[in-house]
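Chain A, query sequence.
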Amino acid sequence: MNKEKTSNEQNDENALKEQMLQEIEKLGTSLHTILTKETRMSTWENKLSTNQQLLLYLIWKREIKTVKELATELGVSPSAVSQMVAKLEKMKLVKRSIDLQDRRNICVELELEGQKVLEEADQVRALLLAKIELQDLIELKKGFEKFYHILVENYSKTEEKYNEKDSSNHL
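Chain A, predicted structure.
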C-alpha cells in the first residue's frame, strides 16, 4: 500500500535532512581546513592563501590559461585574479604573458616551482586516497554529483529569474 507521508513524518524527515546538512557542512569545512594545511609544501606553508592554491590548481589540473577564464571560474573580477597572479608571480610560481592571438587576454602558466608545489600536494592527496576503499569513494562521488545537480538546477532557475527581472527593468 502506497501511503502518503503525514505532516509529522514530513517534518521529522525535514529536521533530519537539516541536521545531516549541518553535519556535512561541518565535516566539509574540517576536511577543507585539514587538506589545505596538509597539502602545502613546507617552504610555502602560511604563504599561500586558499584562493591562491585554488588558482594554481585551476591552472594545473583544469588547464585554465587566461585571467578572464580564471575570474569566471572563481566568480571574482579579472582585477582580483590579476592581483592574486601578481603575488604568485613574485613568488615565482606562475608567469604571465600576453595572448598573441588576442592581445586583450593575459595568459597565466605555471613556473617550475609552481609545478613542484602542486606535485607535492598531489602526492599527499594520493597517500590519503589510498586509505579509502574504492566503494566508499564511489558512494561519495554519487552523493556529490546529486548535490551538484540540485545546485545547478536551482542556481539556473534563480539566475533565469534574475535575468528576467533585470531585463524587464530595462524596458
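The helical segments are 7-38, 50-60, 67-74, 78-90, 112-129, 134-169. The two ends are 54 Å apart (CA to CA).
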